[in-house]
Structures are given as C-alpha cells and as structure tokens.
Design goal:
The longest helix has 24 residues. The protein is an alpha/beta fold and about 240 residues long. The chain has a 9-stranded mixed sheet, sandwiched between helices. The chain has a two-stranded antiparallel sheet with strand order 7-8. The chain has one domain: Carbamate kinase (3-Layer(aba) Sandwich). It is about 35% helix and about 20% strand.
Amino acid sequence: MPAAERQPGTLCYSRVLLKLSGEALTAANGYGIDPEVLQAIAAEIKDVHGLGCQLAIVIGGGNIFRGIAGSAQGMDRASADYMGMLATVINALALQDALERIGVMTRVLSAITMQQIAEPYIRRRANRHLEKGRVVIFAAGTGNPFFTTDTASSLRAVEVGAQVILKATNVDGIYDADPKLFASAKKFQELSYIDFLSRHLKVMDSTAISLCMDNALPIIVFDLSTHGNIKRVVGGESIGTIVH
C-alpha cells in the first residue's frame, strides 16, 4: 500500500531489524552511556513495538571500545575484536534494562556464551521470542573477529526473516560526501546495492551490503536524532535513503 494511502498507526513492515551504533547511546562527549539518551531511544522503540511490529536490534560497541581502533594501536586484531564484542553486550544489557523499565519485554541473545547475563543465540529461539511479541537484542556481533556489527545485522536479519534493516545514523540518509564537511553534498533517495559498493560509501561495510544483496534485503538509512523517525520508517514514510 502506498504511504499516502496507509492509515496512521499502520505498519509497512511487520518484522524489522534496527541497527544502532554504540555512539547513539552517548552524550556530547561520545563515550559511555547517557541515561537520558538511552531512555529516549527506549521510548521510541516502545512506540514502534506498540504498533505490533516484531523488532530485533543489533547494537554496536563503539562508545566503549572499537576493535579496529585497538588493532590500529598495535593490539592483536582478534583480541581487540573480542573486546569490542563484549562492549556490545554492555550496551545490549543497558538497552534491555531501559526497555523493561517502561514495560517492554526484552531478551538479549549473545553470540558469545555468557549464560549468567544473556541467552545464547539460537535462531529458532530468537524467532520464538519475536513471535511472542518480545523485543530481541542480538549482542556480541557474529561471535567471530574480523566482522563488524553491520555484518552481524545483515546476518541476523536474514536468519530471522526481517523484511528490512533500519540503519539509524546521525545523518538523514546517504550522501555522496560528508554533508557536515561539504555543503554541496548530494543526498540519495535510493541506491542499488551495486551503486553503493561501486561508490565505496562508508555507511555500511561491503560484506554487510553483499549479504543483503544476495538475499534481496533492503536497507533504510535514516536520522535517529529526529523524534519519531523509527515509527515513521516502519509506517512506510519515505525518509532517509533506501538501498535495494
């Protein structure tokens, strides 16, 4: 149904995967977790969940530790990546707590086994939680070094049958240059997977895009900082940039 004909409060996508960066949880200093920011994101997720949308989330860990940055400073890349995965678990637990304090039942499924604090990732279990109306947060990336949380998003979205990946950023879509540095930067309303790869755009890594392309999984890149945008995207409003 075209967005213009869809009634307010209805869904365009009934099962989505939301990709959040760890930096989305921070205040101005860009490090750690800001309780007010966390609560605001949780409230927006609750609004979307209240529409009946089955919502899975992958969250990064860059607000605490970024594996590739550690590697650049001389650390063993695999060890640095495992540290980054543990940072995503901290963020996942924080978001779970924020959601459950406002009445949204949430489960954290970790690709690295840590039974005291999270369930192990099992695809059938994840699907069952989604069918029961629980928000599912996938933590610890893919459980393997050398893969980003963008790739984890693509993999988990395909595994649970999500209809779209919602990539939340601090920019209102994909541009041909950084709009914060270049006033003449052009925004794309839509891109093909091949165009995205050929332009070497850095919004998502090439492994994640290739996996989405192989499985015809669209990606919508949008601005998280505008209140209500997650709900607008799920409702089918044309905001941000779609890669398909």
